[in-house]
Amino acid sequence: MILVTGASGTLGGILVPMLAARGEQVRALSRRARDGAAGSCEWVVGDLNTGDGLDEAMAGVDVIVHAASNTRKQGKGDTAAAWHLIEAAKRGGRRPHLVYISIVGVDRHPLKYYRTKYEVEQAVEDSGLPYTILRTTQWFQLLDTFLRGAAKSPLLPVPSFPFQPLDAAEAAGRLAELAVGAPQGRAADLGGPELLPCGDLARTWLRATGKHRMLVPLRVPGKVGKAFRDGIHNTPDNRQGKATWAEYLAAAY
């Protein structure tokens, strides 16, 4: 049995039916009751923030894929949530394989959300459970969401650093492989096939969506800006992703 947290999120919404299609027994964790027919999985109610319902969710679980994160609040509460999950896993009397999805460069990047992701990585490593941590570069879907929000203004700010975007479906595919395999500790980083300047990302997105916006250079200050300009969030030696940004946009729009 594989328990997936964040099952209704961008990644989880792809991963759950993917695992089910492979014939795996999947249990999806949600804070609210949901229709169990979705994705041919069992939905269970549990709250990572309080720990409520986690003991019941752990019954018979062999693998946990931890994909939940408080992205809207820069990871607030994520470390405590991870420990609630770990403690419930241990109370269950089993030693499930804990698989965690993280971001390339979190151990060196000063961005608050990245630092929190690294704290969760450390919790996973210190859990005493067999584990695998997969770091990926930024997903197409999240960049798309960011650009939709930014394009509400007639001026579209464009930072001066590149991204190496990856399709979340490819991240989900790699997570599925790791979930059914032996624990690896730190798995090899997974990056998209292209390193693209933000200006190119934005112009391709505007063409695909048919929008017209003026691109305005944006310099991100301080240590965070320097880390992005230094490319800490990218992994040029790991371009295993196949889908390109233009291909994703063509399919999406």
TrEMBL record:
Transmembrane segments: none annotated. Residues 6-137 form the NAD(P)-binding domain. It comes from the Bacteria. It holds the Pfam family NAD_binding_10. PANTHER family: NADH DEHYDROGENASE [UBIQUINONE] 1 ALPHA SUBCOMPLEX SUBUNIT 9, MITOCHONDRIAL, NADH-UBIQUINONE OXIDOREDUCTASE 39 KDA SUBUNIT-RELATED. This is NAD(P)H-binding protein. It comes from Catenulispora subtropica.
